[in-house]
Amino acid sequence: MTGASGASPDCIFCNSSEPDRAELVLFRGRVSFVILNLYPYNNGHLMVVPNRHAPNLATLSADEQDELMRLTRRAEIAVTEAYAPHGINIGINLGKPAGAGVLDHLHIHLVPRWNGDTNFMTAIGETRVLPEDMKSSAARLRPIFERLAHQDETAESAKNAEKI
């Protein structure tokens, strides 16, 4: 459990500290975190999620909005460095008709894409084939997130020192 108020006991994001899900978490910020998608469309498919069980952007605090965007930026950099995709789909699905797989807990998907990455297995066979297992994806991405967090903290400290 993330300890967030209003947490739902059945929500996979509210229960991201459970042992079977904790290994998917790549980075934890103050009010949000980055997690690998358990059912990815491509290698490196991850999500940026607020700790608090919030259904949409309108219910997020300014701090949550800020950190979600900062972590989405950091995730874009990490995915680009780790996988060198030709593009990245970044999106939010609000509600079941919009394609949300987890209802009522906002999350931002980042899906690395490569030219020609749609093949007959996905399009016709309705089966996903990934050459990299989740533990390998996590091992590849975690150090990048740690380095980027350190760089951001160093830059913020330098910026604050200039103000003094």
Quickly describe the structure.
37% of the residues lie in helices and 15% in strands.
Low-confidence stretches: none
Mean pLDDT: 86
What is the string of helix and strand elements?
HEEEHEEHH
The proportion of residues in beta strands is 15-25%
The largest pleated sheet is described as: 5 strands, antiparallel
**What is the CATH architecture term?**
2-Layer Sandwich
The CATH topology is what?
A: HIT family, subunit A
Q: Please state the structural category.
A: alpha+beta
Distance between the termini: 39 Å
Shape: globular
Quickly count the helices: 4
What is the CA-atom radius of gyration, in angstroms? Answer: 16 Å
Main β-sheet, spatial strand arrangement = 1-2-3-5-4
Please give the number of β-strands.
5
Fraction in helix: 25-40%
Which CATH top level class fits?
Answer: Alpha Beta
Determine the CATH superfamily: HIT-like
Query: How many domain regions?
Result: 1
SSE blueprint:
Layout lengths: L18 H4 L2 E4 L3 E5 L9 E5 L11 H22 L3 E5 L16 E6 L6 H4 L10 H30 L1
Antiparallel strand pairs: 1-2, 2-3, 3-5, 4-5
Helix pairs in contact: 2-4
List keywords for this structure.
4 helices, 5 strands, five-stranded antiparallel β-sheet, 164 residues, alpha+beta, HIT family, subunit A, single chain
Q: What do these coordinates show?
A:
With 164 residues, the chain is an alpha+beta fold. It has one domain (19-163): HIT family, subunit A. The chain has helices spanning 19-22, 62-83, 120-123, 134-163; strands at 25-28, 32-36, 46-50, 87-91, 108-113. It has a five-stranded antiparallel sheet with strand order 1-2-3-5-4. Helix 2 crosses helix 4. It is globular. The N and C termini lie far apart (39 Å). The mean pLDDT is 86.
